[in-house]
Amino acid sequence: MQADDYDTAIPNFLEEFGDDVFVYAAGKSRSLREGLEATEEFGRWERQNQDLLGEYPDVSAYLAPSGSDFSFAVWQRQLMTGEREKLSDREILSLAQERVGAAKYRAMRLKAGAYPNDEVKGLLRQYRESLAKQYPGFPAVAQFEVGKFEGQVAQLQLMVDDARTEGNTVADAVRRYLTYREALLLKAREAGYVATTLKQAKGLEPFRDLLASIGNQLIQETPEFARIYDRLLSQEVEL
Q1: Cα 174 to Cα 24, 48, 214, distances in angstroms
Q2: Co-location of 112 and 183 in the same domain
């Protein structure tokens, strides 16, 4: 289902098999490197792009195809190199809750349109809080670490400016997104805000809404962009 449409995979899975199987949204391990996958497709990309993985360790794996065929050999290699760790039963449950909550919230956020008004935003916050109660592993308020986020964005910019990433569709989408983001930050500074991210002031809400709509449009054009948007970039702009 992820191979067909990453954006709707979890909601479609739950619709077909029921909410009782939500725990299968998480695996028995988790990656310690952003964007890591345990698939044949990722394994091939990983072998061919060790230079990028070494130079941009926190973000380069997002450029790999997510793939659909699980590879025990790739999974085992990632465990042995310390890029992946096994989870306890409690951690598996928490991770599944986080993924299902995030997927359901994203589906509702898309229904709200590109520029939700204050009433709709209030309803979205209520929905997120209800999801957090139903799935405790999903936070009621989006998690955002300014320093960590800025470091990852800086690394992203360097990576997509690297000639080795030219022609990669995800890198192209990230490049466009970061160009829009920098333009909005410039407008924010011109308006008197001292901001290095769009999350830093309530008055920047219209800028966040615009960038969120741009992110969702890029996902429609390049579905593979959804992984890096959902797991990283959306932290700055979503409610």
Answers
A1: 29, 21, 11
A2: no
Same domain, yes or no, for 151 and 126?
no
Q: What element of type H or E holds 62?
A: none
Residue type, 204: L
Q: Are 36 and 123 members of one domain?
A: yes
**Confidence grade of residue 7 (pLDDT, cut at 50, 70, 90):** low
Rounded CA separation 55/7 (Å)? 29
Q: Dihedral of CA 60/56/150/137: which sign?
A: positive
Residue 11 lies in a domain: yes
- 77 and 121 share one domain: yes
Alpha-helical runs (H) found in the chain: 9-17, 40-48, 50-55, 72-80, 89-111, 118-134, 146-160, 169-190, 205-221, 225-231
φ/ψ of 36, rounded to 5, equals -65, 140
Give the whole-angstrom CA distance, residue 145 versus residue 201. Answer: 15
How do residues 25-55 score in pLDDT, each as one tens digit? 777 888 777 787 888 888 888 889 999 988 9
Q: pLDDT, tens digit, for every residue of 116-162?
A: 888 988 899 899 999 999 999 988 887 777 788 899 999 999 999 99
